[in-house]
Fold this protein.
Amino acid sequence: MSATAQSLAALRSAGALLNARGLSALTSGSLRAFSSSSAAGSAQPTESAAPPKIVVFGGRGFVGSNVCQQAQNAGYSVLGLSRAGTPPLATGRWVDGVAWARGNALEPQSYLHHLEGADAVISCVGGFGSSEEQLRVNGAANVALIETARAVGVPRFVFVSAHIPNVPGIEALIGGYIRGKAAAEEALRTHYPGSGVALRPGVIYGDRAISTNVTLHLGLLFKPLELLLQKMGPEAAAKMAAVPLVGAAFVPPLPVETVARAAVRAAVDPRVAAGVIDVWDLEKAALHMEQAERAERAARK
Ligand SMILES: NC(=O)c1ccc[n+]([C@@H]2O[C@H](COP(=O)([O-])OP(=O)(O)OC[C@H]3O[C@@H](n4cnc5c(N)ncnc54)[C@H](OP(=O)(O)O)[C@@H]3O)[C@@H](O)[C@H]2O)c1
């Protein structure tokens, strides 16, 4: 079998891993902006129709700026909102292709007008701090966004939630974070029962700009662990992850690009079913994306 045929066979078998909830749609067309494989009814851009409008809350943040970048590269109309309203520290031509505006999730009046005509909202709002702050930023802020988007008729909503590892006593450490995420997921279920998607990644790695001249390359730390867990296989790793305390070490870290692409795909493609996409399915999507990229590179040779 040629290298290309082997790569394509690997790609097909990885695709078969993705479950019937439409998860393969998370990765389809991710390599090209205008995929010819789009399903009927999909909100993917076509050359004649106006591209879908996606509003990204937390667009200046680590995950949010990657979501904006992926969505802009895919040809969507992207509006990145944050409390400051300024572009992120990240640089690149894509930054100029995104519209940046001010919006505080807790103050619907500050962003109501920005939701007009939006096809989807992606919320990357979250964070740590005191217990009350964790509850406010992960819970109340996202609940307000979900309720407001529903009230003005935005059809789809994607929320970047989090996988909570099986560590005894974690509730005492980050109880506000956990309860906040749960409250936001509950609001999503209530207000977007048919078109709300919550992603639950574990640790997310990538290049994280912390000032204009300092970027943390988190991949150096987490990529080796991800590769090790991929070798072990998602099913075996998932079993180990259920073991209290040590299990946390078996939750795969994910590249920020994977989470961002999955969020964008869930926002525009109705084949991605409503509900929770957990870290294990995201990991399978990451494998699928890597294999697709390898197959495409091999096919180009
Ligand atoms: N990084 C990880 O390893 C990881 C893992 C699992 C899950 N997650 C989840 O992924 C999401 C994004 O994480 P991240 O690492 O990208 O965090 P981040 O860089 O700190 O970004 C969080 C964003 O939330 C925004 N925000 C906070 N309060 C807001 C409000 N009231 N209104 C509007 N925006 C508000 C901030 O915007 P401004 O301050 O610019 O206004 C910031 O851009 C979070 O929900 C996090 O829990 C992250």
Summary: The pocket of NAP is lined by residues 57-58, 60-64, 82-84, 104-106, 124-127, 137, 141, 160, 162, 201, 203-204 (CB under 6 Å). Residues 1-20, 29-42 have pLDDT under 50 and may be disordered. The two ends are 16 Å apart (CA to CA).
